[in-house]
Amino acid sequence: MHSIASLGPGDLTPFPNPGVRRIGFGEDPPQFTVAHLLIHGWAVQRLSECNDPPIGDFKIWAKEVDSLSPKEREELPRDSDLKSCHTLWRDQIYYMWNHVFYDVGNWMANTYGTGTFKPPNTEVFPIEFPKPHENGDGEKKPVATKVWDTETLLAPAYLAPGVSLRVETFEPGQENGEPFHPADFNHKDRYNVWYVKKGLQMRFYVEGDWDQSTDGVAAVMVYGNMLGEPFKFVDEESEESEEDENGEHEE
């Protein structure tokens, strides 16, 4: 079971047009554990080779750290390369997000009639740190902009220490208007998946207090398109009507 929170715009707008929703795993401990491992796993130092991609080495590592507390996992040795978006190890991390998105997508489709998620179907994009001069004129500029062509599931595969990602959204045709600020991706609230409706423009801003000398990326976002057909719901009346038509209704 998952929990869901409306982030807008239009909290009262019914599905399948909800704007942005945040799906949490508070009532699903196994999925919370997997999401926790994936987010912490992106930056860890892996000295062994990935002999069985896409999931072999991740399963080995997950067993190795299974007994560690969340705090101990935070203290695992980190890879010195925090800029490369794609390595054999990190590509395994992205692949494993298929499992999370599949469960979340099925729950969304069953509960709210959204499109379904068909794995494997994950993509990523990096969020770079802003250059020192980019906001020198006082005008805040986004470091990345995405327009979602389909219903989408979105999560932070990695957030650099001290970073918070401010998100602003625009409805189609209103890109020059006032933005809506649904929420931020930050370290306190990073074990969630966002549902984003089709057509929404999303702009990302790097905020927080980070090491200005870092050579890494500010964040890496992983997402999956919900391209599958929505589940068809059959109510009791339609089932009885179909039975009558087929002569299967018992007297």
Automatic annotation (TrEMBL):
- Top-level taxon of the source organism: Eukaryota
| Protein name as annotated | Uncharacterized protein
